[in-house]
Amino acid sequence: MLLSLRQLSVTVMSTSCVMCRVVYACLSLFVSQVPSEKILRAGKVLRNNILSRAPHMIRDRKYHLKTYRQCCMGTELVDWLMQHTSCVHSRVQAVGMWQVLLEEGVLNHVDQELSFQDKYLFYRFLEDESEDAPLPTEEEKKESDEELQDTLLLLSQIGPDAHLRMILSKQPGQRTVDELEIIYEELLHIKALSHLSTTVKRELAGVLIFESHAKAGTVLFNQGEEGTSWYIILKGSVNVVIYGKGVVCTLHEGDDFGKLALVNDAPRAASIVLREDNCHFLRVDKEDFNRILRDVEANTVRLKEHEEDVLVLEKTNNRSSGSSPLKYTVMSGTPEKILEHLLETLKLDSQFTESGALQCVQSEREIICCRKWLNASFVRQRMFQCQCSFQICVCVCVCVCVEVLFKVYCSDHTYSTIRVPVAASVREVIAAVTDKLGSGDDLLLIHLNSAGELLKPSDVSIFSSLSINGRLFVCPRDQIDSLTPLPEQEGPSAGSMSTFELMSSKDLAHQMTLYDWELFDCVHEHELIYHTFGRQHFKKTTANLDLFLRRFNEVQLWVVTEVCLCPTLSKRVQLLKKFIKIAAHCKEFRNLNSFFAIIMGLGNPAVCRLSQTWEKLPSKFKKSYGEFENLMDPSRNHRAYRLTMAKLEPPIIPFMPLLIKDMTFTHEGNKTFTDRLVNFEKMRMIANTVRIMRYCRSQPSSDSATGKSHQDVRSYVRHISVIDNQRTLSQLSHRLEPRRT
Question: Where would I find the Ras-GEF domain in this sequence (predicted)?
């Protein structure tokens, strides 16, 4: 259990001495007594490579008349990592990778310090602790050389967490500006803190303390005790226990607890018990919690009219401005007062112009720049002929005023072709069909897929929101149960491997990227907002976004369909290899949307259960697939993916489902109105997500990624045929490899 100030004798110690002991105790909690096999091997690989390539780095060293045996210098270890891998982008990242070895005891500071530093400090590998440490043989050197890049990739993935723990275990007053920024960046991805302002998060970065507990069943605090801390779960889970009721709920990573007792200055309302081993927490002590609350209130400016708040501002430090150290940030307000405040503070950058996209309106008081929703590409009138398969090649953005032609089927599989605006509601579609059929019946519009979804009258943009093999049916209510899918909705009966196995994996990935970019480039930023808040409220279309999201599902199902329709074991193994290669090239082309679609397709239950197929896959491809799966790790709010994204330069095709998830999380986790005022902080968080999409498209896409562009490859990737019924895919999978009894 983490030591607290009450557990330490303070009668003859200064406060700083006590804090040092607390930090040491905290650090020692996550320094492993027995290194894991994986990290032990990583240390051996690094030591062998250093002895092979730079043996002078491990030697006896003298400092202050004392000799330290067989040790390395911190700065030299960081230099060596920077020189030997492309996955290390900064010295800070390299420090985190060495910290992993230090936490596991595979690398040790000569004076038993528990944090790795990029300084003139001495560190010794575990194997060199004994005086007769053996040198690696030629065979061991060769094996270590082959494993080096995989080892460095592993450490680069887990290094940031180790580095964060090291920073959080420092005394708050000893954290550098860069370290506070690292903590702040981490807080941006914690669910429990999403509603807090930027100022509060930065304040928390300076006071948070790392706390860990090793064993499940440990009681963090008991019901009825005085509340002394607020906790945020960084790793693991806890049970909330109330006397007489037992476990009332379970809290997981990203959740928080203990705040109510601090706010109300009341006893703990429940007991908290660790649900699993090795749980990590961020802790805010009561004194710091209350100080931050006082600071927030002191820095809050409220403008009132008729004794009611109409505008709430927060005073913040203006780090980017040299003229005025303070500025006021809008937190909430009435729409009129927010706009009035913006008018009073807005400054026009005279050099900022964007031809055709900005409209400048001059007034005597200010100049406002308003972004046009419709530019040239949005006002083009274009007729889309929607075929049954909905294979649409979108070359321009779909505007709300565009009309579409598509088929609506009856229960006997006859159809009528109607023309309606792309943003037409279900009610308008039914009216058009009724007029076409001349029917007086009370008709319902059905989205017939594997689920048989009944559409609501208020639903809009029906054509673009259909599932991949979905079709629109219209019928009276008493005929709903008699509806049957069209034969074509069942998808292909044979795979297309014979077609695309002859195509280069790189060419396939390149053509997929070109098509995905066309779709992504058509998505207007406003569509994210319409999708999040409900497009029916805006009477606007999200057709471009719908088609792009639909493409993700299509690629994912393409992988599953091809594998499940391949009857030969050896061919299925070739398919897995092919898809892993295509995924690697998509990642190389910064097409993260198709990259994740392919990896999620390979992880579909119908594919991952094919154990005989996966057993035959060469270890090289298994390793690659494992690395790709690590990027999909959802822990810490998809931290692995976000770190990867942060290292990429535009143009980038992002993992769009995660952007949608971020928008939805922000929307549902924060009220749009607080005390009848617009929650402007929520709008700011949504805008930050939209800016990610803008950044991804801040540079134009280049067609120079690969030399060849084959028409047959282009045609293939744009006309993929898939099975979208998971039950059918599972049945096909069990026919290929029946469940072992």
Answer: 504-739
